[in-house]
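Title: [Solved] Transporter family-2 protein 3D structure

Original question kept below for reference.
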Amino acid sequence: MSIFMILFTLLGGITLSAQSAINGTFSRKAGTIETTFLTFLTGSMFLAILILFFGQGDIFAIFKAPVWQLSAVFLGVLFLLFNVFAVQKIGVIATSITVITGQLMIGVVIDHFGWFNSLIITLDMKRLLALLFMIIALYFIYKGNKRSHEEATE
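Solution (posted by the thread starter after getting help):
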């Protein structure tokens, strides 16, 4: 089952990068906020159909959830909004590596302190080195993008 989940998640990453590229292009014509809205509206309609036919949970549990847990909804909107905007400016790969670096940075902090009732996994040298390598990768990708952009505009 774990190999299936890895492949499933890999497919999710592939679709996220494809969506970023398409949304970045689309937002040049429709606008960043409008593109983000359309993405969430379409996604909401699709999920409503899935809930209708396959839902097993309690949709009204949202009224019982602590307010801090509902903040995830706004964080998702901000993520997509920032992503659509960034792809237009720095490209898909720089946006993706920046997102992943940010996720890893906050992820080690959340794990280390056990925030949001997560497992406590202490920050060690291996994790610190992994973050350093991601930051180095981000630097080289950004510099490569910048150089390619400058060459293309000459």
